[in-house]
Amino acid sequence: MNQRATYEELQPAAAAVQTRRRILVWDLPTRVFHWSLVLAVTVAIVSGEIGGDWMEVHGKAGLVILGLVAFRLAWGFAGSTHARFLNFLPTAASLRAYLRGRWKGQGHNPLGALSVFALLGLLAVQATTGLFGNDEISFTGPLFALVEEGLANRLTGLHKQLAYVLLAVLALHIVAILVYLFLKKDNLVKPMVTGWKEVRAGTSAAKGSWTALLLSIAFAAVVVAFASGTVRW
Asked: Chief subcellular site (predicted)?
């Protein structure tokens, strides 16, 4: 009887441990940014590989990428809880805790955070070098005329080289998603589509304000206006 009572007493505790609840992890602006970036980068890669008349599309995709990165930088300071850089900035302590299986949190884990910063930085440099580049045939970037031809050629070379680095980083990103899905049984894609995630512990992210959203969009628009040559430097 005592053994049965003990078992029955443990059942509620075990059930409590297994209880999961739904929380908001990614707000709508962050999700729209993410999938817009996926589309823009895909278009940029494909159009760049095709070349020729598609270079105009490549250039426009680059401007979109630059605008999206600018938006994310602004949203990273004024956006929702898990979108803010200070809330997922990786530290030596958080990396050690994560590698030892002791890290607890929502949003980007420390290794994922490193990937985010690396990808944003790489895309910013890649898009910026493209502004001054050329294809040595008929296409030139919108800011090509602002630099000497020798510098423009060097920036074009860097732009082409960084494309391979970008492909490698994207491949690692996809591999990490698959590892989490099949080995850790953690679907990272679903929350980036719906915004919601089932967790055992945690609270929903506080959303960013409309003012912060409008300012972030305005900042991105200004960056694109200058980058496209619409506004003179």
From this structure: membrane
- Quickly count: other Cβ atoms within 10 Å of residue 143's Cβ: 19
CA distance 206 to 110: 20
Give the number of residues written for the chain.
233
What ranges do the domains of the chain cover? 38-228
pLDDT tens digits along 84-137? 999 999 989 888 988 888 888 788 989 889 999 999 999 999 999 999 999 888
Query: Residue 176 and residue 114: Cα distance in Å, rounded?
Result: 13
